[in-house]
Fold this protein.
Amino acid sequence: MLITLLLVVGLLLLAAMLGGRFGPPHQFTLDFIGPLQSAVTRTFSGIVNLKNDYVALLNVRAENKQLQAQIDKYLTELGEYREGYSTYRHLQELLGLKDKLTFKPIAARVVGKEPAYWYQTIVVDRGKKDDILEGMIAFAPGGVVGQVMHTADNYSKILLANAPSSAIDAMVQKNRTRGILKGAGEKGFVLQYVLKTADVEVGDFIVTAGIGGVFPAGMPLGKISKIEKKQRGMFQEIEVEPHIDFQKLEYVLLDPTDRKAVLDSMNLSPAR
Amino acid sequence: MLVISFWAVGIVLIIAQTTLLEYLPLWLGRPDVVFVLVAFIAYRFAWIPGILLVFALSWVLDVVAGIYLGLYPLVCLLAFTALKTLTNKSPVKESTYQIPLVGLSYFLSQIFFYFVNSILLPDMLPEWSWPGALQRTVLVVLSAIPLFILFNRLYEYIQKRRLRGKPPRRRSQRAI
């Protein structure tokens, strides 16, 4: 009996590992756990928000003044960015480029997060019924969040961009120097394969490079927080602080464009 | 009844681990409470219900959070087998050794996990950190203390109820 059980479990494990497919039993499990996670997250975040609101009231006056000053500063900056944007649009029209902002993102609530160091995944309350497909990108107003990894009918699992197994083609915004942005867990990101001769500084912004077609070019990823140039080797060691606070993610936006279908038809789907 | 009850406890722990524990401060890290339950199952359950429970629970966590499907159940089943073999008819089963053994098995599991990752996904290998691994082990050991008390109470409560529910055996005619 024990040997039979061990054989069955072993075969199931082997099938799961070798197949690597997110089949109906996996999808059923995710759809079973998702609502439970959603209920706990909603209840607990409600309590936390209530507590935070109360604490916030205590410092509201000082914070108001500080926020007003920040608004003034941001309005000035916004004016400059508007000017820059209109110049960009004008130049784009001149070049005859099409406006590529076609997607209408779908908002999804984060219902579960796996805190273990090895995983760095989240579960959101949107799935196949909402036309979510594996491979779609997830982002927040601050920038890239990650990529949809597995989908069930009503829930999906997203691999966060800071997961050790995540790698994104990225570039330094100011001079288009390219590299590979690897997840480094709680440390954020590490930008790899940037030559020592490249002009990069602490504080430079890193955005997606758009190579490979998964992430559109120019999505914010983070800014350089540390640069180390060792005597050996051709490349610099660059640490990048993410724009997104992965710890505090409550909602994400999912890009429902048919990017995956296009990639599949071209046989360019990223290996998962 | 015992298996179903502990399966339900496991599901509650998985939900807590993937929702509530996220609110712990980042510097503290998060304990793998499901692994603590796996160790408890190895100490208190027989082989067959133990394997069933460990596989069912680690499968759920793997689906909810795993990147390389099947790896977490494999690690949990190996930890279960190692603990079960080590503690079977051995003085190591005593409660004094239980918690330190949870820590040791978790520490070795992390090394095994890293080793398997280095074979399966060498390009996507996260940076190994001894202080990080030790910190996670300490967290698991600390969380194992209250959790083991809780699991033991639940286990004994269910056992007592089961015994109470059983009708007393009638003496046979011969004995009279």
